[in-house]
């Protein structure tokens, strides 16, 4: 498991395993958001199995599947609500962490400078410069 903290309160990661959840709880994360659709992964890693394991540890678990290349306004709204309602830091994951990072950028469109967000995610190897127009458009829609 690789925790890629975009902020002190929001991290992204590639796919995790139920065995990673105790370490996430120990690291202070209180909410886990699954941005990976079940169709991409084997049954032991699917949302309901992960949710049961997380909730057994007292963690909040949010299922918010983001389809590759088909992120919706609803995905952003669900993520934003989960983050707003979290009682501590939020840990998000998908296949590589990329979709979780893009959702974060869209949640923060108009709140944080686009250049700052692109540079932030670039620290972890994500090239979001081509998304500048999308993020700026989201900021304008506010």
Automatic annotation (TrEMBL):
MF-aspect GO terms: hydrolase activity
Residues in Beta-lactamase hydrolase-like protein phosphatase-like domain copies: 3-110
Source organism superkingdom: Bacteria
Name this protein carries in UniProt: TIGR01244 family phosphatase
Pfam families to which the protein is assigned, alphabetical: BLH_phosphatase
InterPro entries: BLH_phosphatase-like (IPR005939), Prot-tyrosine_phosphatase-like (IPR029021), Rhodanese-like_dom_sf (IPR036873)
């Amino acid at each position: 498991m690789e925790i890629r903290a975009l902020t002190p309160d929001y991290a992204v990661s590639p796919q995790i395993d139920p065995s990673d959840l105790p370490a996430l709880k120990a690291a202070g994360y209180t909410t886990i958001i699954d941005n990976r659709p079940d169709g991409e992964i084997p049954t032991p890693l699917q949302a309901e199995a992960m949710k049961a394991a997380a909730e057994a540890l007292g963690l909040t678990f949010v299922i918010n599947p983001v389809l590759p290349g088909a992120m919706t306004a609803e995905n952003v709204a669900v993520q934003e609500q989960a983050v707003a309602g979290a009682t501590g830091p939020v840990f998000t994951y998908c296949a590589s962490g990329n979709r979780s990072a893009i959702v974060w950028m869209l949640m923060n469109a108009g709140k944080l400078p686009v250049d700052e967000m692109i540079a932030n995610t670039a620290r972890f190897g994500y090239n979001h410069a081509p998304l500048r127009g999308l993020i700026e458009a989201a900021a304008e829609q506010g």
